[in-house]
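Ticket closed. Logging final result for Aminotransferase.
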Amino acid sequence: MDGTKTFQINPANRMTGLPTQFFAGLVRKANAQTAKGRDVINLGQGNPDRPTPEHIVKALQDAAPNPLYHRYPPFSGYPFLKQAVAQRYKEDYGVDLDPEKEVAILFGGKTGLIEISQCLLNPGDICLVPDPGYPDYWSGVAIAGGRMEYMPLTADNAFLPDYDRVKPDIADQAKLMFINYPNNPTGATADGAFYERTVEFAAKHGIVVASDFAYGAIGFDGKQPVSFLQTPGAKEVGVEFYTLSKTYNMAGWRVGFALGNSEIISLINLIQDHYYCSLFGGIQAAAAEALTGSQQCVNDLTSAYESRRNALFGAMDEIGWHAEKPSGSFFCWLPVPKGHTSASFSDYVLEHADVVLAPGIGFGTHGESYVRLGLLAPEERLQEAIHRIGKLNLF
Ligand SMILES: Cc1ncc(COP(=O)(O)O)c(C=O)c1O
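Final structure:
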């Protein structure tokens, strides 16, 4: 170079078309408040606060020295891990899965949720997404150059999409749809009848269903969440995404699965052949231990979240903040007080109560007038957060 021209990096259109990360701003504000030395209670994120159960960590320690795992693993992962997740689905949901044809191992559920759009959508193709919904669906659709059509989730329909409200021409053009129960951000759960309607709608219009079951293990009041794959016909029209992140507090380990329709599973495996060479074998061994070992840790975790939920709602009652209790996931979907938007309320409680809540608008336009609170702190901290908000006299 002659030194007169400045070298320019021109990102691909794919990069400039990515959705903005709404919550990055919230994280910055929370960090700024912490940097001032304030005692910030961060309930705005979805990062499990407890450690991975000991027996799973021990399985990694035992597996780490094994020279077999120091070599490249098989491209689509070790058969023993696929067998382990198939066994768990059989025991928990009575669902039969062929470990080789109907299971793909993922670097966390997130990668699969992005990959499925790349596998199925051509530029301009329509994907139905829930509003409010988990923002990673948008990322995958944007990278694939697809187009999103929103399915509103509102309290009057128990935060389930109403398929009768999807315009028939949009439904006929749609190639993919995302559903997610137990739901982030609303904490709603779905029953078998909803999944039957989903299979019927998908089959009628030729839409592939991506059921995000990230919170599948977390159901309250004695009700185990239902898997989409339990519905007759589900495997013909779609796949389910499962992850160890929430069930076993393994968010940092990055282990997830796509399960169901064998053609979609082979597409996911194919795209992954180009991106990765599967996870470290020691992590796969520990993941298999999580799935096949004692499930007491899962029951304990769910009970802990339920106690936290009850403690939180007890404190909310005291300050006159009324909301529907979540029936699953670890999120509470709470209405903001009169005179506030979701963003102004989140900013206000961060500034005046040092409590971080995620503004609902960050999950879609139908998230406006709600905030999402994660049950990811001990009961006393959750109660303290509500007491601090109570002192602001907003309710
Ligand atoms: C609804 C939902 N789906 C999927 C994921 C992805 O989880 P992971 O990539 O850790 O498996 C999350 C994580 O927060 C989530 O909330």
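The pocket of pyridoxal-5'-phosphate is lined by residues 46, 108-110, 134, 180, 184, 212, 214, 243, 245, 251, 256 (CB under 6 Å). No further action required.
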